[in-house]
Amino acid sequence: MTALPPLTLFGSLRWDVVRRHLPPGGRVLEVGCGQGAVGVRLAAAGHDYTGVELDGASAAVAGERLAAAGLPGRVLHGSVEELGDDGAFDVVCAFEVLEHIDDDAAALAQWLPLLRPGGLVLVSTPAWQQRFGPMDAAVGHHRRYDPPQMRALLAGAGLTDVGGRLYGAPLGYALEAVRNRLAERRLADDGTTTAERTARSGRLFQPSSAVSGAAVAAATWPFRLTQRAFPASGPALVAWGRRP
Fold first, then answer.
1. Which residue among 83, 96, 158, 159 is least enclosed by CB atoms within 10 Å?
2. Is 184 exposed, middle or buried (0-12, 13-18, 19+ CB in 10 A)?
3. Prediction pTM value
């Protein structure tokens, strides 16, 4: 069995939702793959995986993790423009990415041609603009998304069968409170630009090498069960739509 790199606590809550909306097999592109904890899981699940990451340090870790797991796939350091005219992906996913992009509608317009007709766009973002706090600013977020706003964004991009659900209650609220307190003390006014804050966001709060993916999964197990029972509650959002 492939050893999976550990997710963050919040990442474990997110993955529990995301994996239930992924079709089996197929070619998957992850935009902003970070350090590859999700990418390894996608490849291990049998997807033909491609990850794209702007931060060089994170892209290197993601590539090393795929190789160490002995899984096929590729990680590209750069933007989706590195893919050229490759338009045959079954899924384009972006987890905690859209909120970092000033023109989110333009980003979606750039991603859609990479999908085959009928292909799925699957995204996750922080939810509720009224909850925008010190950690959002510290990691380069431009906004958070109210669910109606996200549905309008996806529909405006031309996607059909648009849907979404909240997740993360109750643990996500506690994790956000801790992160906001840490940001107030150490990160919010450190002189970095929004782009620099975005680049480092995928490196913050990552579990140490001594922490196993199984340990994080065990710690979040009761909270994952709880959030499944309350899909209309939580501080974070997973949303989807299909290319016509």
1. 158
2. middle
3. 0.92
